[in-house]
Amino acid sequence: MKYRFFTLKQAENALRLAEKNVAPRIDEVFRPTRLEQMIFEDAGGDAENKALIELFHLLYASEHRPTEADLRFSAANCRAAVVNMLQNQPEYGELRRFCAGNDFVAMETAKMLVQTVSEIEKHLMDALGKLPMVLSRLYEKQNRLHEKVQSTLAKVQNDSTELPEILHSAEQLASVAEQIGVVRTMLSDTLRKQLSQEETALQTAAQESLETARTVAYASACWGSESGNGTEKAQQNQELLCKLKENDYLRDITRQLGRMKEVLSALRKNGYAHGRGEKFSLTRGRDLRNLLSGELALLASPATMPLFLRRYNAKGLTQYAKREKIRKGGGDVIVCLDESGSTCGENAAWGKALALAVQDICAHEGREFALIHFSGKDEVRTDRFLPGKFTAEELLAAAEHFFDGGTDFETPLHEALRLMDEEAFENADILFITDGYCDISDSLAEKLQNGVSDARCSVIGLLMDEDTAGNTFSLGKFCEKTFRVSQFDHRDIEQKLLDAFMPD
Q1: Which of 157, 299, 343, 420 is surrounded by the fewest CB atoms within 10 Å?
Q2: Which of 150-159, 188-197, 355-364: highest mean pLDDT?
C-alpha cells in the first residue's frame, strides 16, 4: 500500500507502529544462566550445539528465559515453534518430572530428542524458503527508517524545510511495517501447515524420550554414585548407561526397582506418628512440655492448684498433640532369591527388584540385610549390606548376578540359619522368593521352625507360579505365609510385601 502523509501526527503514528513491530529473536529460544551453562558442560554437553543446549535448558531449568509470552512471535524461529509443540505433548509433564534439576537425566533425554528436533527444524526451514531472509531485510530497513524519522523529527519544529523529507521517510516506514505484517502472516501460515505434518514424528520422539528419561532416572536413583566431581560423575553415569544398554536383565531390574522406590518414597512421606514435632490437635494427658498455657495458669493461684493436681493425676490436662515422621525400628532381613534357569526373564528381574526394594527399606531404617542368591545344590552366594557400609557398585554387582542353574531349597535355608546363628542375624525375618517346586527334609523344616521360633521372627514365601497355578508346592513346610502370583497381581504383592517390611 502506498501511503501519503501530510502532518507530523501521521509521521509520529508511523513511528509508534514500527516500535510495536519489533523484530523477533531468531538466534535462540532460551537463554541459560552461566551456572546452567556450566552444568551443561559438566554433564558432557557440546557447547556448539545450540539445539542441544536449549533442549537441556527446557528439561532441566526451573525457569525458562525468555518466558512463554516471548515465544509467541516465533513465526520466524523454527526451533521455537518445535519447542512450543513439544511443550504441548502429553508426555511433557512427565519428562519435566524426571528431568528438572537432574543434569544426568536431562542431558540423556535432550540427546534423545535433539536429532528429531533438528530434523523437524530443517524441514520447517526448507518449507519457509526465503521468507525468513526477506523478513530479516525488512526489519533492517524498518530500523534504518525508524532511526531516520526519529532523528529528524525534532529538527522539523525549528526548520520546516525538513518536513517533506521526514514525511516521505515516514511513508516508507509505514509501508515497510505493513509488508512485515504480510510476510509474518505468510510465515505463520506456512509454519502451521508444515508443523501439522511433523507432529507424528515429534509425538513418537516425545514417547521414546520419556522412556529414556524414566530409565536414566531410575538408573541414577538405583545405582548412581554421589562421589567425584561433575566430570567424574558424568563418566560414571555414561559407563552405567552403557552397562544397561548391554544387559537386558539389569535394565529390567532397574525399571522395576526404580518404580518400587517411588512407591517407598511415597510411603515414607505419608508416614506419621504422634510425638515431638508439628502441633496438629488437642488431647488429654499430663505432659508438662505440651500443656496449654491456660492449664499452667492454674498453678499460679493457691485456689486453683488443687484442681491442677487432680487433673494431673487423672491425666486430664489439655495439651497439644504433635506428629512427626515415624522413627520405628524393625528386625534385620534375609532374602533367599531363586536364580534357577526357570526364573529367567520377567520373573528374575521382578524378584531381584523386589529383593533390592526390601534392601532399600533396611538401609533407610538402619537394619542389616542379606541377599542369598541360590540355584542348584551348593550354588549359593551371600551378599551382606550393613547400614552405611556398602557402595552403589556392590548393589549393582548383586543385581547383575544370576546363576541360571537348577533348584535346591536346602542350601539357601542352611545359609539363612548360619547367618542367624553366626552373623548376628538372630532376629532376622526371612523372605523366600522362588518359582518352583522343591522339597526339603523334615529335619531341616523342624530345625528352621525351631530357629525361627527362638528368634521370634517370621518366614514369608513368594511363589512366582503364573504357569503352574494348580500345583501344590512345599513352601508350606517352612513359610508362615505365602503370596502366590497366580492369586495376586504383581503390584498387589509389591504393596503387601513392602508394607510388611516397612516399620510398624
Answers
A1: 157
A2: 355-364
